[in-house]
Amino acid sequence: MATTLALVHIYVDDTAAATGFYRDALGLVVQNEVENDGFHWITLASPADPTLQIVLSEPQAGRSKEDGEALATLLAKGELSPVQFRTDDLAELFDRLAAATGAEVVQEPTDQFWGVRDAAVRDPAGNLLRIQQA
């Protein structure tokens, strides 16, 4: 039996800005766009592994008003769980991310004491992304 990760949700407050960032700067490919009940979500994947999907959606989509507001508050504070990516060219990807509209550099590429080289940025919604050299 094989078990693999299939999908990860990333909450964003502006799906258009987030799509531009994840598609144009991070290099993911849009696989699907859906609108339902006034909300919009986008599914993306890496060309290197299209079976692992990332869904960008609004905090209020599919939940109570109170829960949506609570999640939106955590998103605005940058307090949601970070997302980790891996790349075979950290320097090139970091340069693209650092130049992307709405991105905030948190840490330039650095050799970490635990043995990886990585960098960190925040996407336009404030989500922390860590990218490590493969």
Topology:
Elements: E1 7-11, H1 15-25, E2 29-36, E3 39-46, E4 49-57, H2 65-77, E5 83-87, H3 90-99, E6 104-111, E7 117-122, E8 128-133
Parallel strand pairs: 1-4, 5-8
Antiparallel strand pairs: 2-3, 3-4, 6-7, 7-8
Describe the structure.
By secondary structure, the chain is an alpha/beta fold. Helix content is 25%, strand content 41%. The protein is built from three helices and eight strands. It has helices at residues 15-25, 65-77, 90-99, and strands spanning 7-11, 29-36, 39-46, 49-57, 83-87, 104-111, 117-122, 128-133. The strands form two sheets. A four-stranded mixed sheet has the order 1-4-3-2. A hairpin with a 2-residue loop joins strand 2 and strand 3 (39-46). The two termini are 27 Å apart.
Major sheet details: 4 strands, mixed
Number of helices: 3
Question: Could you tell me the strand content as a percent range?
Answer: 35-45%
The low-confidence runs, each spanning 5 or more residues with pLDDT under 50, are: none
- Sketch the topology as an H/E string, one letter per element: EHEEEHEHEEE
Which class best fits the helix and strand makeup? alpha/beta
Q: Could you give the distance between the termini?
A: 27 Å
Strand order of the largest sheet: 1-4-3-2
Radius of gyration: 15 Å
Number of strands: 8
**Global geometry:** globular
Mean pLDDT: 94
- The amount of helix comes to 25-40%
